[in-house]
Write a structure and sequence with these properties.
The complex is a heterodimer. Chain A is of the alpha+beta class. Chain A is 40% helix and 20% strand. Chain A has helices at residues 53-65, 160-177, 217-236, 282-290, 296-305, 310-317, 320-329, 336-350, 353-358, 365-376, 382-393, 398-404, 413-426, 428-435, 440-452, 459-472; strands at 3-14, 69-70, 73-74, 77-80, 90-93, 100-109, 112-125, 129-133, 136-140, 147-153, 189-199, 209-212, 244-249, 254-260, 270-271, 278-279. Chain A has a nine-stranded mixed β-sheet with strand order 2-6-7-10-1-11-12-13-14. Chain A has a three-stranded antiparallel β-sheet with strand order 5-4-15, with no helix packed on it. A two-stranded antiparallel ribbon of chain A has the order 3-16. In chain A, α15 (440-452) packs across α16 (459-472). By secondary structure, chain B is of the alpha/beta class. Chain B has a domain at 3-240 and 443-462: Amidase signature (AS) enzymes (Alpha-Beta Complex), CATH 3.90.1300. Helix content of chain B is 40%, strand content 15%. Chain B has 16 helices and 13 strands. Chain B has helices at 3-6, 11-29, 39-45, 89-96, 139-146, 163-169, 203-213, 248-253, 257-272, 284-305, 323-334, 337-350, 352-379, 405-410, 416-420, 448-462; strands at 32-35, 58-62, 100-105, 125-126, 129-133, 152-157, 172-175, 195-200, 243-247, 276-280, 382-386, 424-432, 435-443. An eleven-stranded mixed β-sheet of chain B has the order 1-3-2-6-8-7-12-13-11-9-10, sandwiched between helices. Chain B has a two-stranded antiparallel sheet with strand order 4-5. In chain B, α7 packs antiparallel against α16, α10 crosses α12 and α10 (284-305) packs across α13 (352-379). The radius of gyration of chain B is 21 Å and the shape is globular. Classes of the chains: A alpha+beta, B alpha/beta. Chains A and B meet through loops of A and α10, α11 and α13 of B.
């Protein structure tokens, strides 16, 4: 029997704000454990939540980019459960009235374009982080209260690659909005993937499993593929899929059972009494909508009008940091395509993703721009550019590098002509060979010319000049 | 004891006298849970303006109010060792106004009760008759003011927890509008019903106190942006043309003839001053539904509010093989049977399958009650009724019929002010034997100025201000 896979994805995304969702404590990834906390984050008796306006702004931006309908009356609810990482014994979330509902994004997949519907986006607070060390468990409350949005898709995906494309696109959009750092490996973007199989052509959903703890985009495809295989094998053997939460084990390359879902927990949701409903002003919402950053699709279109090819556009747009680098580079650049080549090639291999994201490099854009323009003007050769580039990376200026490396691009007509004439005078046999139809002769002459100029002759112009002079000396 | 009489003494003497007295009466009244060494506060006071409204005035906090580096137990077992790491907003305001905080007053555990009998440190005795209760939940605070230890004490009021003990102890108890005083830093009972307020021995001191405590606080999103009025300087006590509406549901339910007679006399005096006194009847079914409605909402919120008390980060911790066992053991030992009962009721009301039938229904009934009160107040300036049918009950009293109208209506109607959030206060208007009786006023939201003015008018008529019931060992 053939099976159809049905996938829905929940994404928890930490918002990049200065302070927490409901307290003034700083949000800081990687700080000393338990240093970014105050009495509110620790759930001390008598504390009350105060809503972070910046988090609401970022949630609104996300809603807009994901085509969600916005509920301008902000309301929160309590989700009650006891757990060591949940200081208050409840999480403040938006169960009954999410800020965004009924949206979608369009993704490109191997099977063609697909519109994935988004059920809802709601704001909530993150829990603390637990570490289990041998027999002990340690809790870092720095993460407690970090602003989160949860984005819940409809079960619209049918394959591992679609699931990956969805998360990749969503993550990219959120990063373009600058609402999150999107780091899956650090848990600032976490996805729970619900997977079930059903016989092809049937409507009813099969029993689903939920996969958690996926730490990279590429692991999404691996995790989902292996889970599909696992479920299919069970079904084909006439066994049942158990409703459970599983995690992807990067070493075993397979999903591993975490816990069975035995009946659902009653979270006893009720409206949060300490946060009165807040009516957002239309003016503020419009202001946010009008100043929304450029999103990936718009950027791709803009690159298309710049004349970049599909490959470069994809390379750039899918890497916001690189694309931002490119955008910073191109003002007054003479050849945008050439700039794109450099960005997708040498820049990408010379600078780490982290350096690009943090703009932490010595390379000066103005100097790189000058070199690329010189290259375009054929004032230097590609080979020379490769020699210059490592120096640019060290933060040196283009002019001084050229000076230091004694790079002289011989491209002036008169001095090149002199060299060409000398070369021809010294190699009469090659002139005969050239006119005798031996194409290699031209290559030989170019080589001789380069040698004579110590590599400084502009190859394109030299080539042209040699041909002209050779024609003049046709026997 | 009034602010004025306290101010006759030099600052240090006032504070030390208050502390001495608190210690002296403690074995008799059992009103305090912990004492605070005032030395550093007195030191801080030296750099402050002597004209501050609370300059050097000793004040007590209900044991639900966090003050940095002091013990705040909530009169519970589970927080027996809890040292507050921060100041409640009102503590900051009191200090800024020059007050010296001398200690924490006993209350029903986490404010959940009306007798003060559930305090971890045991019942608080009424200074007028030691066999009688203080009332609760802010019983310790009320008794400290009534016995002349401090001229002002902070209380909280979720059902009538300031106004009832004020009535039983012969003092003024004010619960302002919801959002008028910040709740930040006060251990909650039920967030949508909790109010912070206070006790004083006269209306003028109440006006001064409200001026200091009220105001917007960014740490409490439910606190109001409305400007704070100059309550104290605007106090006139003019009753002419003021419209009082007697809540007949309450007066009809009261069995005690003495209370009824004195209340009627008060109303006659009001009329004599030019006040317009009419009768208002609220929907009797709603009045009878008030207590169960209150229990559902308050306990539902309370069960969530106290889920933070898992003993993992603070509080008395018992051993267990994992976090879950630690939580279960600590909570089982740390909460008495009454609290556990309330948590079970609250949880039950919140179960998904029960929410429509219980929790949401209670919210609907609450809205209906509020609409009824709102309508009543559209015709008058103030609703008036005795705060209780009788003086303070015996501590050992077990004879209360909890389904009688006398109990359901006359003893619990003040929760109207918590359901609606409307300002409400109690002040003494007479005695039943040796026991004080209180009268309750409820006004429209943020009409504290009017409410205090009406109270001042009543106080001028009764002359029952600055009552002190000294107790001696």
């Amino acid at each position: 029997m053939n099976y159809e896979t049905v996938i829905g994805i929940e994404i928890h995304c930490e918002l990049k704000t200065k302070s927490k969702m409901f307290s003034g404590a700083p949000v800081s990834y990687g700080a000393q454990p338990n240093t970014c906390v105050n009495e509110i984050d620790l759930g001390h008796p008598g504390t009350l939540p105060s809503l972070n306006k910046e988090a609401v702004r970022k949630a609104l931006q996300a809603c807009m980019a994901l085509n969600l309908k916005i509920d301008p009356l902000i309301r929160f609810d309590r989700k009650n459960y006891y757990y060591a990482d949940l200081p208050k014994g409840f999480q403040i979330t938006q169960q009954f009235h999410p800020i965004g509902s009924s949206g979608y994004i369009d993704i490109d997949t191997a099977e063609g374009p697909l519109r994935v519907r988004i059920n809802r986006l709601h704001m909530e607070e993150d829990t603390a982080k637990q570490y289990h060390v041998e027999e002990e468990s340690w809790i870092d409350f720095n993460r407690a209260g970090t602003p989160l949005v949860e984005i819940v898709s409809e079960a619209d995906m049918r394959s591992a690659s679609q699931a990956m494309a969805y998360v990749d696109k969503l993550r990219n959009i959120l990063m373009y909005l600058d609402v999150t750092d999107g780091k899956m490996e650090e848990g600032s973007l976490r996805c729970d993937i619900n997977i079930s199989l059903r016989p092809e052509g049937t409507e009813a959903f099969g029993t689903k499993t939920e996969i958690k703890n996926i730490n990279s985009i590429s692991n999404i495809e691996k995790a989902v593929s292996s889970e599909i295989i696992r479920q299919k094998a069970l079904l084909e053997a006439g066994k049942e899929v158990q409703q459970a939460t599983r995690r992807y084990d990067d070493v075993a390359k397979d999903t591993v059972m975490m816990r069975l879902k035995e009946g659902s927990v009653d979270y006893k949701y009720f409206p949060e009494p300490n946060i009165p409903p807040i009516q957002l002003s239309q003016v503020w919402i419009d202001e946010i909508r009008n100043s929304l950053p450029e999103l990936p699709e718009a950027r791709a279109l803009r690159y298309k009008t710049l004349g970049l090819n599909e490959y470069d556009i994809k390379q750039l747009v899918q890497n916001k940091a690189l694309s931002d680098f490119f955008d910073a580079l191109i003002p007054s650049i003479k050849n945008v395509k050439l700039a794109a080549n450099w960005c997708c090639g040498d820049i990408l291999s010379a600078l780490s993703q982290k350096q690009l994201e943090e703009k932490n490099y010595q390379l000066k854009l103005s100097e790189l721009r000058e070199m690329i323009n010189a290259l375009h003007d054929q004032a230097i050769s590609s080979k020379q550019a490769k020699d210059i580039f490592p120096h640019l990376l060290k933060g040196e200026n283009y002019a001084s590098i050229v000076d230091e490396l004694k790079i002289v691009m011989v491209s002036e007509h008169s001095s090149l002509l002199k060299l060409v004439e000398e070369t021809l005078d010294e190699n009469p046999q090659s002139i005969l060979d050239y006119h005798g139809g031996k194409d290699r002769a031209l290559g030989f002459l170019v080589g001789q010319l380069m040698k004579k100029s110590k590599g400084q002759a502009n190859p394109a112009i030299s080539n042209q000049l040699l041909k002209t002079e050779l024609d003049k000396r046709k026997p | 004891m009034s602010f004025t009489s306290v101010k006759n003494n030099p600052v240090e003497k006032r504070v030390l006298e208050a502390l001495d007295k608190a210690h002296l009466v403690q074995p008799i009244l059992n009103a305090m849970v912990s004492f605070i060494d005032p030395l550093s506060q007195l030191e801080d006071l030296k750099s402050k303006d002597k004209n501050l409204p609370f300059y050097g005035i000793p004040v007590a906090l209900k044991d639900l109010v966090n003050m940095k580096d002091t013990i705040t137990t909530g009169s519970s077992k589970i927080l027996d060792n809890y040292v507050s790491p921060y100041d409640a907003t009102i503590v900051r305001k009191l200090k800024e106004a020059g007050a010296i905080i001398i200690g924490k007053a006993s209350c029903d555990t986490f404010g959940m009760g009306g007798t003060n009998k559930t305090a971890a440190t045991g019942p608080v005795h009424n200074p007028y008759d030691l066999s009688r209760m203080s009332g609760g939940s802010s019983g310790g605070s009320a008794v400290l003011v009534a016995s002349g230890v401090v001229p002002m004490a902070i209380g909280t009021d979720t059902g009538d927890s300031i106004r009832k003990p004020a009535a039983f102890c012969g003092i003024v108890g004010v619960k302002p509008t919801y959002g008028r005083i910040s709740r930040y830093g006060i251990i909650p009972y039920a967030s949508s019903l909790d109010h912070v307020g206070f006790f004083t021995s006269n209306v003028s001191d109440a006006a001064v106190s409200l001026e200091v405590l009220a105001g917007r606080d960014d740490l409490d999103m439910t606190s109001s942006f409305k400007p704070v009025e100059k309550y104290s300087s605007l106090l006139k006590g003019d009753l002419k043309g003021k419209r009082f509406g007697i809540i007949t549901n309450v007066t009809n339910a009261i069995q005690n003839k003495n209370t009824t007679t004195q209340f009627n006399n008060l109303c006659e005096k009001l009329k004599a001053q030019g006040a317009i006194v009419s009768e208002i009847t609220l929907n009797e079914d709603l009045m009878k539904a008030m207590l169960p409605t209150y229990y559902v909402i308050a306990n539902a919120e309370a069960t969530a509010n106290h889920s933070n008390l898992d003993s993992l980060r603070f509080g008395v911790q018992l051993e267990g093989k994992d976090n879950e066992e630690v939580m279960i053991a600590s909570r089982t030992a740390g909460f008495g049977p009454l609290l556990r009962k309330r948590f079970v009721i609250g949880s039950y009301a919140l179960f998904t399958e029960n929410q429509d039938l219980i929790f949401r229904k209670a919210q609907k009934v609450r809205r209906l009650i509020v609409e009824d009160v709102k309508k009543a107040l559209s015709e008058v300036d103030c609703l008036i009724a005795p705060a209780s049918g009788n003086g303070a009950p015996l501590i050992e009293d077990t004879q209360i019929d909890q389904l009688s109208s006398e109990y359901l209506v006359a003893e619990n109607f003040m929760a109207l002010g918590n359901f609606s959030g409307y300002p409400s206060m109690t002040l003494p208007f007479g005695f039943d034997g040796v026991l004080p009786l209180g009268v309750n006023l409820t006004c429209k939201p943020f009409e504290e100025r009017l409410m205090l003015d009406l109270a001042k008018g009543i106080e001028d008529l009764t002359q029952l201000n600055d009552l002190i019931c000294e107790v001696k060992p």
